[in-house]
Design goal:
By secondary structure, the protein is an all-alpha fold. Helices cover 78% and strands 0% of the residues. It is built from 14 helices and no strands. The longest helix is centred in the C-terminal third of the chain and has 44 residues. The termini are far apart.
Length: 257
């Protein structure tokens, strides 16, 4: 990985900004989780061991809605699968020693990936990944604990409207990532499926069905691309044929001379 040098201090500053901004939202998860009926210990264990906000919010949200724990866990799992694809890219970018890879894998999330990929060199990518991951992990777990303890202190979180904190934070993290029409189409269809099926399917299942939006949109995009290629080739064929005919005719004329 090559590119213009970037000062280490600038990388650290950017990484700290992301880590602090997102890490503080762990408070919302702690409140939401405790309000869903999980204990402080269970809530903290999720942040320590799972450490991927979207999956954590999906899990406690499904449980709060009365869903089966296994279904809720399945929905959270499928949301977390995206981190595996991040890991494939970061393994090449960071090229960490084998002994560090299992530890680094726990920090492969949206934010650490975004900061790492934005860096021009391998050195700055490693610094960005490490600072973002460490800052976010410490703050996320600390604010999760504070949120869970606070939820127990204030009692019914629904009365305060804090049950909406989790979805609000998740949408705030997701919105800036929807940069292309394909990504926006996937998000829109997923929302329609999730909300439309919510009244008729058990809690947690609509999330699983909404995941079908991604392959559906990609399939349609692939068909469109194939049709465009077919159309272009069909338009090019007559020209190519005419050029070939012209070349043959010129060859025959040359032979006659």
């Amino acid at each position: 990985m090559t590119g213009p040098e970037k000062a280490d201090s600038a990388v650290v500053r950017d990484a700290l900004g992301v880590g602090v901004a997102v890490g503080l939202s762990g408070f919302a998860f702690g409140v939401t989780s405790a309000g869903s009926g999980l204990s402080v210990l269970q809530t903290c264990a999720l942040s320590l061991l799972v450490f991927t906000g979207a999956s954590q919010f999906a899990l406690v949200g499904a449980i709060a809605a009365g869903g089966n724990p296994l279904t809720a866990a399945a929905g959270a799992f499928f949301l977390g699968v995206r981190n595996s694809f991040y890991g494939l890219r970061l393994s090449q970018l960071l090229a960490l020693p084998r002994v560090l890879r299992p530890l680094a894998a726990h920090w492969v999330i949206d934010e650490t990936t975004a900061v790492s990929l934005a860096q021009p060199t391998r050195r700055s990518a490693r610094i960005g990944f490490t600072v973002t991951g460490l800052t976010l992990y410490v703050l996320w777990n600390l604010t999760t604990l504070l949120g869970a303890l606070g939820a127990e202190a204030i009692g019914d979180t629904d009365a305060w409207g804090l049950d909406a904190a989790g979805p609000a934070v998740f949408l705030a993290l997701l919105a800036p990532m929807l940069r292309t029409s394909t990504e926006r189409a996937v998000a829109g269809i997923a929302v329609v499926l999730g909300l439309g099926l919510l009244p008729v399917l058990p809690a947690g299942v609509p999330v699983l069905v909404a995941a079908l939006a991604a392959p559906a949109v990609l399939y349609v995009e692939g068909r469109r691309a194939a049709r465009r290629e077919t159309g272009e080739s069909s338009h090019e064929s007559p020209d190519e044929n005419s050029q070939a005919t012209s070349q043959k005719a010129n060859g025959r004329q040359g032979e006659g001379r």
